[in-house]
C-alpha cells in the first residue's frame, strides 16, 4: 500500500478519482463530461451543485457569492488588488512565506503594499503576532496556511478593515466564519479539486469600488453576474470538485473532517516531539495541520530515512526545495491510517538506529 504525503497538486480520495474517470468515458448517454455542452441542463446542474456544496459546507452567509475561476491562486495575487485597491491607496499584507510574498509583489501594479509584519528573517518558521493594521488600509491580506513552511494561522487578527485571505492549502479542512472575511480565495488543488480551478468567496458589496477599468475576465463581477460562466468554464475540474465536495459532505462535512485532521496532526507532532531522531521546524503554536515540516536531529541520517520511507511505500515526504528536510502533507483525503503507518515507520527507524 502506498501512502501519499505529497503536497499536491490535487490529492483526492480514490473513489472520487474513480467516479471522475467513469464520467470521462460516459457521463450521459455515452457522452463524456468533457464533450457535453457547458450550457446543457446537465452541466448547469453540476455547476449549481458545486456552488451549493461550497455554500453549504462553509456555511456561506447571504450577501456573498461563490465564484469558480481559472488561473490558480497566483492569478488572485493580481486580481485582488486590481478589484479592491483604488489607485494610489495602500493595502496591508502579512508576510508569512513565499505565497504571501508573491501576492505582495503584484500589488505595486495597482497601488501600495504595506507589509505590516514578516517572519522572513526566521525563514518563515513562525507567524508574526505583534503588529498593527492601519485603519485606512484598503484591505488586510494574509495566507491562512503556509504550505511550504508548515505554519497555519488559526485566529483571525482583529481589524476593522476588510479581510482578504489566501486559503489555498487549508480551505475545507476546518470550520471558518466566512462572515469575518470580505474575500477568500483558494487554488482548488489541495482539498477541492484539480489544479487551475480557483474558488473565490466574495462579499458582494465590496465589488465595483476600485475606480479603474478592469478587463472582463479579471473582473469578479463578470463571474458573479454570469454564474461563473462568462466564458467556457473548466467543466471537468468543476465536476471533480463537485464529486469531492460531495464526498466531504458524506463524511459528515467540515466539522467531522476537522476532528480527523486534528487527530492526524496531533498524532504526528506527538511522535516528532517524542522521537529523539526528529525535530519540528516551526513554532509549536503555529504548527500547521495540513503540512507538517520536520528535520532529523542528525542531518547525516536524512538520506537513509528518506530511502527507508521510499522503500516502504511512502510518497511525497521530501520537504520543499527552499526548506529541505521533510514535509508530510496531510490534506483531507489522506486517511489517518497513513499517519499511523508513518509514525510506525519513524519508530522502526529509531529502533534500527539503536540496534
Ligand atoms: N497560495 C498557497 C497557500 C499555495 O499553497 C499555493 C500553491 O500551492 C499558491 C498560493 C499558488 O497556487 P497556484 O499554483 O494555484 O497558483
Automatic annotation (TrEMBL):
L-glutamate binds at residue 39. One of its GO terms (biological process) is L-serine biosynthetic process. Its cofactor is pyridoxal 5'-phosphate. GO terms for cellular component: cytoplasm. Pyridoxal 5'-phosphate binds at residues 73-74, 99, 147, 166, 189, 231-232. Its EC number is 2.6.1.52. GO terms for molecular function: O-phospho-L-serine:2-oxoglutarate aminotransferase activity; pyridoxal phosphate binding. It holds the Pfam family Aminotran_5. Binds 1 pyridoxal phosphate per subunit. InterPro entries: Aminotrans_V_dom, Aminotrans_V_PyrdxlP_BS, Pser_aminoTfrase, PyrdxlP-dep_Trfase, PyrdxlP-dep_Trfase_major, PyrdxlP-dep_Trfase_small. It catalyses: 4-(phosphooxy)-L-threonine + 2-oxoglutarate = (R)-3-hydroxy-2-oxo-4-phosphooxybutanoate + L-glutamate; O-phospho-L-serine + 2-oxoglutarate = 3-phosphooxypyruvate + L-glutamate. Residues 4-340 form the Aminotransferase class V domain. Pathway: Amino-acid biosynthesis; L-serine biosynthesis; L-serine from 3-phospho-D-glycerate: step 2/3; Cofactor biosynthesis; pyridoxine 5'-phosphate biosynthesis; pyridoxine 5'-phosphate from D-erythrose 4-phosphate: step 3/5. Keywords: Amino-acid biosynthesis, Aminotransferase, Cytoplasm, Pyridoxal phosphate, Pyridoxine biosynthesis, Serine biosynthesis, Transferase. It is found in: Cytoplasm. Homodimer. Catalyzes the reversible conversion of 3-phosphohydroxypyruvate to phosphoserine and of 3-hydroxy-2-oxo-4-phosphonooxybutanoate to phosphohydroxythreonine. Belongs to the class-V pyridoxal-phosphate-dependent aminotransferase family. SerC subfamily. This is Phosphoserine aminotransferase. It comes from Pedobacter polaris.
Amino acid at each position: 500500500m502506498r501512502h501519499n504525503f505529497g503536497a499536491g497538486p490535487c490529492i483526492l480520495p480514490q473513489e472520487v478519482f474513480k467516479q471522475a474517470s467513469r464520467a470521462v468515458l460516459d457521463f450521459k448517454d455515452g457522452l463524456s463530461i468533457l464533450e457535453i455542452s457547458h450550457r446543457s441542463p446537465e452541466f448547469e446542474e453540476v455547476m449549481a451543485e458545486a456552488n451549493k456544496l461550497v455554500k453549504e459546507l462553509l456555511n456561506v452567509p447571504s450577501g456573498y457569492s461563490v465564484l469558480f475561476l481559472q488561473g490558480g491562486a497566483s492569478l488572485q495575487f493580481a486580481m485582488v488588488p486590481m478589484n479592491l485597491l483604488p489607485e494610489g491607496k495602500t493595502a496591508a499584507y502579512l508576510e508569512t512565506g513565499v505565497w504571501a510574498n508573491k501576492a505582495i509583489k503584484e500589488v505595486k501594479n495597482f497601488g501600495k503594499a504595506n507589509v505590516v509584519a514578516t517572519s522572513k528573517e526566521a525563514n518563515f518558521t513562525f507567524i508574526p503576532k505583534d503588529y498593527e493594521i492601519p485603519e485606512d488600509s484598503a484591505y488586510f491580506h494574509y495566507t491562512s496556511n503556509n504550505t511550504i513552511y508548515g505554519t497555519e494561522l488559526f485566529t483571525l487578527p482583529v481589524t476593522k478593515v476588510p479581510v482578504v485571505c489566501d486559503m489555498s492549502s487549508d480551505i475545507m479542512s476546518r470550520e471558518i466564519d466566512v462572515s469575518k472575511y470580505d474575500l477568500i480565495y483558494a487554488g482548488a488543488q489541495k482539498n477541492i479539486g484539480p489544479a487551475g480551478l480557483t474558488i473565490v468567496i466574495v462579499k458582494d458589496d465590496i465589488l465595483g469600488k476600485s475606480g479603474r477599468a478592469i478587463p472582463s475576465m479579471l473582473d469578479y463581477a463578470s463571474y458573479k453576474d454570469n454564474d461563473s460562466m462568462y466564458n467556457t468554464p473548466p467543466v471537468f475540474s468543476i465536476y471533480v470538485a463537485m464529486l469531492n465536495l460531495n464526498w466531504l459532505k458524506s463524511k459528515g462535512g467540515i466539522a467531522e473532517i476537522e476532528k480527523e485532521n486534528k487527530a492526524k496532526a496531533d498524532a504526528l507532532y506527538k511522535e516528532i516531539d517524542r522521537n529523539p531522531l526528529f525535530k519540528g521546524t516551526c513554532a509549536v503554536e503555529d504548527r500547521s495541520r495540513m503540512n507538517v515540516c520536520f528535520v532529523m536531529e542528525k542531518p547525516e541520517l536524512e538520506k537513509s530515512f528518506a530511502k527507508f520511507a521510499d522503500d516502504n511505500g511512502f510518497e511525497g515526504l521530501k520537504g520543499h526545495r527552499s526548506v529541505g528536510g521533510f514535509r508530510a502533507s496531510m490534506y483531507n483525503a489522506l486517511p489517518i491510517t497513513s499517519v499511523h503507518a508513518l509514525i510506525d515507520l519513524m519508530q522502526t527507524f529509531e529502533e534500527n538506529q539503536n540496534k
